[in-house]
Amino acid sequence: MITVQNETFRNIPTLHVVKANQKQNNELPTVFFLHGYTSAKEHNLPIAYLLAEKGFRVILPDAIHHGEREGSIQGKKRDALFWNIVLQSIQEIEYLKEELKERSLIHKERIGISGTSMGAITTYGALSQYNWIDAAVAYMGTAYFQSFVNVQIQMLEDAGYPLDKDVVNKTLQKLQSVDLSQRFESLNERPLFIWHGEQDEVVPFEYSNTLYKDLQHYYKAQPENLKFLSEPKTAHKVSRVATLAGVNWFSEHLLTEQVKATVW
Q1: Which residues are within 8 A (CB) of 217 and not within 5 positions of it... i.e. 6 or more apart?
Q2: CATH topology for 2-263?
Q3: What per-residue string of b and e applies to 59-68 under the rule 16 or more CB within 10 Å gives b?
Q4: What region holds the Peptidase S9 prolyl oligopeptidase catalytic domain (predicted)?
Q5: Whole-model pTM above 0.85?
Q6: How would you classify the pairing of strands 12-19 and 57-61?
Q7: CA-CA distance, 111 to 123, in Å (whole number)?
Q8: For the chain, how big is the Rg over CA atoms in Å?
Q9: 161: Cβ–Cβ under 8 A, 6 or more apart, which residues?
Q10: Is the Cβ–Cβ distance between 134 and 193 less than 8 Å?
């Protein structure tokens, strides 16, 4: 049986998903799964369920201004705060990891991170910062922060939304330090699975296609640790094929034979 429990870690509302008979086990392999923009933690429960079935502890947090933390920030006002949300989520991944570590619930060498859209963007940012992340799955995101933020700024300006240039510049400066595209070497050939639908009109497919090509140079010693899967007829929605491939990726790279034996 899979249990789903609302828990608050460091003032961050989360869903804690795990097999009932493993909930209190110390130091389980753990995956943090991050939702997309305007979404919430509950929307990714199908993926969390499949991961928990494999033997993972899965933590799904609500990003600031989303889900239980939505508050009054919505619409264009939230659009203008997109990158602040990403930056805060990158910080909060560290807070969540430390809380689980203090409770002896996380295996320090078997930690994965994944996300959809904005969650995938956050995943890329976290990979640039934290070498304790052992494997990652990025669904329909982009690691090219500068390029994507420029597109978003133009969209907001075209829509007539007033932007404070000083605030924009400060945000751009902060993004430089977490922009994975500026420090691909920080991946250190850690297992990374990238998925993107080729008909995506929200986060264009070409971002992931280009990323895969750029990263091959950084995975020469372990090319098997980098995988890219695309689907020609899929738009901005994670398919079942992508879901299962991501679950299998984490199972391959993070589960011990001991854990597999207890589940299978």
Answers
A1: 184
A2: Rossmann fold (3.40.50)
A3: bbbbbbbbbe
A4: 98-240
A5: yes
A6: antiparallel
A7: 13
A8: 18
A9: 76, 79, 80
A10: no
**CB contact at 8 A, 19 and 53:** yes
CA distances in angstroms from 1 to 32, 81, 105, 174, 251, listed in the order given:
20, 39, 19, 43, 19
CB count in 10 Å sphere of residue 135: 22
CB 43 within 8 A of CB 116: no
Cα separation, 163 vs 228, in Å, equals 36
Distance CA 16, CA 34 (A): 13
Residue type for 36, please?
G
- pLDDT bracket for residue 264 (50, 70, 90): very low
Distance from C-alpha of 117 to C-alpha of 66, rounded to nearest angstrom? 14
* pLDDT tens digit sequence for 146-192: 999 988 888 888 877 777 788 888 888 999 999 999 999 999 999 99
